[in-house]
Amino acid sequence: MTASDKREPAEAAPMTDEELHELAGKQAALGEVRGAPAADPVNVPMIRHWLTAMGDENPRYLEEGLAPPAMAQVWTMPGLRRGAKDRSPVDDMMAALDGSGYTGVVATNCEQTYHRYVRVGERLTPATRFAGLAGPKRTALGVGYFATWNITWYTDDDEPVAEMMFRVLKFRPPKAKAMEPYPLQPAVNQDTAFFWEGVNRGELRVQACADCGELRHPPGPLCPRCRSSERTYRVADGTGTLFSYVVHHHPPVPGRETPFVVGVVELPEGVRIVGNVVDCPVEEVRIGMPLRVTYRRMDDRLVLPMWTRP
Amino acid sequence: MTTTAIAGIGATEFSKQSGRSELRLAAEAVLAALDDAGLSPADVDGLVTYSQDANQEIAVARETGIGELTFFSRVEYGGGAACGTVAHAAMAVATGAARTVVCYRAFNERSGRRFGRPNAGLAGQPGSQGLEMSWHVPFGLMTPAAWVAMFARRYMHVHNATSEDFGRVAVAMRRHAATNPAAWFHGRPITLEEHQASRWIVEPLHLLDCCQESDGAVALVVTSTERARDLRRSPAVITAAAQGAGAGQMMMTSYYRDDMTGLPEMSVVGRRLWEISGLSPADIQTAILYDHFTPFVLTQLEELGFCGRGEAPGFLADGGIELDGRLPVNPHGGQLGEAYIHGMNGIAEAVRQIRGTAVNQLPDVTNVLVTAGTGVPTSGLILSSG
């Protein structure tokens, strides 16, 4: 989906509880608002698909050209490309709730009333009436508002054929729990910061001399070949070969589950780097095995490069 | 060199819980070494220890009644400092900076801070060592056993060595310790099967590939050979002493050098020892090789020229390091069998072998080679009778 396809305006300013209720009152005062008529009249192919999908084997619908009543919503679904005409009084309310931090949504009630069967060839038009807003209320999912609305479907003759009451809980999702700080932090200084910034962006950076091009790892202030202090880095291809490894069993290591594998990895760029070998059964780890880099977030600050089978 | 000698050795008991402060252990060992030499604290004008030792020279001097000091020095890099303390002391004596220097190492390494325990702070400081550790510790590669295991795996791969090859070192050390009353594992030899059955610490290292952790202290008195000849004990002459760091050296994690099967820093030490002494491996009757973890004993045999590259497994299988072997190694049982005093207890054993007073005394010992911590910048000695 591109941004223009989004249901709501991109950003709604946060509102107070009072303002939300004020908006709810306004939307309710709009009364029943007609939407765009269905793109297609009630038709056999759609009925057939629906019956198949639902596993409904009653032959009478197709024999008699009648739509199952529970298909009411199907006929007027807006599809992925909504036009401005498809907007309903509910949309502004939802956008305001999103903008106020109530971004979670869960449907809580749906009641449908059918006045009669709809026939193949009839075209339906929905009309939406915003019924009310209740809240804020404390729920198991978080603090939120219950929003209720009604939709009535009309034929071209303005005959109501089906109605629906729908209610959702719009809630403020509890903040994601901060990750436990990882106890094995590296020391970082001016000579090494580029490496750790790199892994945070999913790049394996190898120090390169800006004068002679010599690569080195671990990095340091001077080029080991020409002693230049002009440094840059090259982003490694991310592949390597296992040069040696250990399987740590004992004693326990803070922040780690044992056993775990640590290896010395030889890069095609010509340098070696130490890292964990992950997602590979310990007994299948072998010197010489091909590896590719992967990145693991250890806590809010630290990402570590690790190695896995290609 | 030969102008300096070790004139006295002293130690506390080796235990798992000394029940005493580290400073008290240091003072006890220093006094024991002086007594062994027939010297008094007032004779001492120099002290040397490891940079990792918690007991400052001035504190040891205060406790033991050593008065003024004209020389004090600390040697870096963990257990790699062991023979380096003697090298510094010998240089001080040879240059006249001091007349009598005591080297010491004291710790409650078992009941206090254990080196085998992960320390999340290792990579915490942006000094050069913290930055170096930062390429390893975040991945959980943070114990000495794990650092050594990385080299051991590569050695096995390149030389077709097995865990049993490492196990033969442990078995020999425990056999030697079994007849050494000062050893923690006195009377407790092990079999190769027991080694193989012991639990994994960090593959490919089993529990019995790892040396014990100990509380205790050892001290050594260094003075001129000439003066030592007039003292209580026959001198162990310092024929050669050397420190060594290799190119591209790191603390325990030199994984970025071309080869990972050797210890280039020990090669530096070995070449210096042979060059200074004019001796060769054939002139050594017994060697004290640093054995915090078994695999590096194999590497040292190769780096020092006792056998060729990749030949150490065969050397061991032939019983080469046994008391009746081609090169008896660690007759006291080493750190695997006697105690882990950061290599200092091995130097004391070398002195006893020269004096002819060791519990597992070898015949006709004239030259003993001693090494210090492996995987770190290290040091070595050749001690001789005379």
UniProtKB/TrEMBL annotation, chain B:
Residues 256-376 form the Thiolase C-terminal domain. CDD domains: SCP-x_thiolase. Residues 19-225 form the Thiolase N-terminal domain. This is Lipid-transfer protein. The lineage of its organism: Bacteria, Bacillati, Actinomycetota, Actinomycetes, Streptosporangiales.
